[in-house]
Amino acid sequence: METWFERTELLLGEDQVKKLNDANVLVIGLGGVGGICAEMIGRSGVGKMTIIDGDTVARSNRNRQIAALSSTEGKLKSEIMRERLIDINPDLDLTVISEYIEAEEMGNLLDQPFDYVVDCIDTLAPKIVFISEALKRGHNLVSSMGAGGKIDPTQARVANLWDTYNCKLAFFVRKRLRRMGVEEKRFPVVFSPEAIDKSRVYEAEGKNKKSVIGTLSVLPATFGVFCASLVIRGILGEKLI
């Protein structure tokens, strides 16, 4: 009988597909990186997922976010992604959290037995809390660094966080984590060392954000695919870094 994942099974084999079917993955942040990441993980056949985002679609999201259409403006990204993921795989065991997870709630969230957790948060303070709490609990963690301000997807790469360079977000993540005493913890991140045109970075006032930077559709999508690939290959038993 034909199945929607038969091409995946043709590539990987039945036993490997079963590993994906049995896996439980969390993706937090469903913007330009996280939306693509969540969808690629869902399309791989992962059987259980939790997706988290408290934001709604804005008009400016349309240039890069898979949930963003003229018809979805003002709607919750998490609910849009719920519809997409269930439409892809009606048997998916999906938990949707449509809110911002505060620092004190991160620990309870991460007490669950996930096979992989994926950080696609684009603001520093909650990103640090999520990473530190995930590492504290020994989760398999994949994290996206900064995709903004860059235009060349061929420069995207994977490395241990502590080996990244020319990425301002990664710099600040390393700095904060060192202060918290977790420098010895290795985990894979997606980053790009491509130089940013600083004239295209603008000051802004907002929660956890001090600047706004331009983005191009292909970079967040590339980062999202890289993150999903790390999760899929990790579930299948590949050493990532």
From TrEMBL:
Pfam families reported in the protein's UniProt record: ThiF
InterPro entries: ThiF/MoeB/HesA, ThiF_NAD_FAD-bd, Ubiquitin-activating_enz
Residue span, THIF-type NAD/FAD binding fold domain: 11-238
GO molecular function: tRNA threonylcarbamoyladenosine dehydratase; ubiquitin-like modifier activating enzyme activity
BP term (GO), one: cyclic threonylcarbamoyladenosine biosynthetic process
Protein name: tRNA A37 threonylcarbamoyladenosine dehydratase
Record organism: Aureibacter tunicatorum
